[in-house]
Amino acid sequence: MAETNQLSVRNQSGGFLGNRFRLTGVQKRETKKFIVAMLFLLPSLFIFTTFTFIPLVRTISLSTYLTDPIGRPTVFAGLLQYERLFSTTTFINSFSRSTLFVLYTVPTTIILGLLLALLGNLRLKRISIFRVFFSSTIAVSGATASLMFLYLFHPTIGSLNYLLGLVGIEPIEWLIKESSALPSVAMTSIWLQLGLNTVILLAAMQGIPEELYESAMIDGANSWNKFIHITIPFLSSTFFFLLVVDMLASFQTFTPIHIMTSGGPMDSTNLLVYSIYREFYFNGKYGFAAAQSIMLFLVMLVLTIIQFVFVERKVFYE
Amino acid sequence: MKATPKPLRILRDALLYLILILAAAIIIYPIYSTINISFLNDSEIASFPPKLFPSTFELTNFQRALEQAPLARYLLNSIIQSSLVMMGQLLTASMAAYAFSFINFKWKNFFFLVFLSTMMIPWEATIIPNYLTIRQLDWTDTYLGLAVPFLATGFGTFLLRQFFLKIPHDLYDAAFIDGCSHLRFLTTIVLPLARPALGTLAVYSFLQTYNQYLWPLLITNDESMRTVQIGISLLQDEERMLFNNVMAGVVLILLPTMFLFIVSNKQLIRGLTAGAVKG
Question: Which of A21, A28, A115, A222 pairs with A166 at a CA distance of 20 to 30 A?
Fold first, then answer.
């Protein structure tokens, strides 16, 4: 009796102690896991904090200050820079030119991308060669594309006007005239983005189940019916995705402007990012440029949120 | 399948090929004309009508492009910058992706959201303070300034994590019973299995960095530290440089990316279709 009692006591106390040790053991293990995980995340977190999160806050704070010519904040200015955005022509001009640029480039890129993807999706021999050609612009940088088009548009030696002349089109003063400069830069951007759009649409098309087309064919649908009632609806989330991606890219356009037009003629191609660059890098107006970047950030944030709410949901449904 | 009569099918295919060739010709024309001009001599480029085909394949323009501008140096700078960024991103992203897929730690979801949020902050919103930081650190005209801000990637972490999650957890359990450490498990089991995803990230980040423009433009002033994209665009401003020399330069700096495009087409396209999120 006594022995069993003792045993059970020991058991109990053992269990009790064990429980206490296990609890702290679990906590210890949790802490250890957390520390190990942090060690793995640390390099990334360090870079993100230094070059993304803190700078974002600094941009916001910079936009509420007047600065000296090398970017040091001097006088707190509240929302003065934002008032200036809307009371001077610089921002209003570049914002409206950027919006126009987005309207020129985005729909055209998606429609042309769709046409190329449809061609690339044909069941023909050697089609993969054409796919490589259609997507080739993804390997071209903004700078090299700008130089290529700068030559094509060249008033005396460019071959574009000559080729158009062969089919009876009068020479165009591409980058020289205020009315045609922005569309000309837009052509460059469209060409540059076309490869990516084609590749993404082609990938999406190849994901359409073959049975859909087969059953449509049994029902006597022709190619046009199949395109309208199967292909287009199936690609709707891809279209939306591209719409947002292309709009973001288009709002961020800088390279072709810097190389081809320097914002001219008459500020007609002075797009947002180019204006930000010019204001802080050349004019030393850091606060004003920061306020412009924040506006750009807000536009892009709204676009990203729209994409998240609409596209991500759709993608999850599928 | 409804059978189309044979002659009709041949006619239809011929028509489709014609459209395909026409479309490919239009798309490829800017690249073609660049290559064409790079072979023309000084009098040929100014002739009218413009010469649409080279008559000789002389390399004079390439030679001049390399001699008159330190193109080789620009190329070296770009390759060093892109390689540093690529290796850095592979390292930081695989470490972070490992923690997100194999360790169950507190606030994991919060930290993952922090990583994802970096994809939504456009580069332009941070560029002014970053430029000031680099100037303050005296990192202008250095490889550090060109590479360090890009050493971490939210997108790359996300891409690798998706792949790591597919690795069977049994492997993890077995390795840990054998007393394997996290670092050893990552390097000896996870990374070798994840080679396709690492390849995608490598190609993608190399190309992105090689094609950068605004950042190197801001932080390099010294000619010896310029990257190719900036170097080539400045060539065009120089009086003595004719278009055929500039275009020869363009062809030279397109070669590495075209090579990458052809050799690793699959990885690149996989990266782009996943990575387009960033815009």
Answer: A115
Average pLDDT on A69-80 reads: 83
The length of chain A is: 318
Residues 6+ apart with CB under 8 A from A215: none
Residue B85, classified by CB atoms within 10 Å of its CB into exposed (0-12), middle (13-18) or buried (19+), is buried
- Chain B neighbors of A56, CB-CB under 8 A: 121, 125-126
Over residues A244-249, mean pLDDT: 88
Cα–chain-centroid distance for residue B26?
24
- pLDDT on residue B2: 52
B235 in Cβ contact with B249 (< 8 Å)? yes
Residue B183: how many other CB atoms lie within 10 Å: 13
Looking at the predicted structure, is the pLDDT value of residue B201 above 70?
yes
Decide if B250 contacts B38 (C-beta within 8 A): yes
Query: What's the one-letter identity of residue B184?
Result: R
* B253 and A CB contact within 8 Å: yes
Give the distance from residue B216's alpha carbon to the nearest chain A alpha carbon, in angstroms.
12
User: Best mutation site among B124, B135, B227, B254 for testing chain A: the one with the most A CBs within 10 Å?
Assistant: B124
pTM: 0.86
Angstrom distance (rounded) from CA A17 to CA B191: 42
Q: Residue B45: its chain A contacts at CB < 8 A? A: 157
**pLDDT tens, residue by residue, A129-180:** 999 999 899 889 999 999 999 989 988 888 888 888 888 888 888 998 888 9
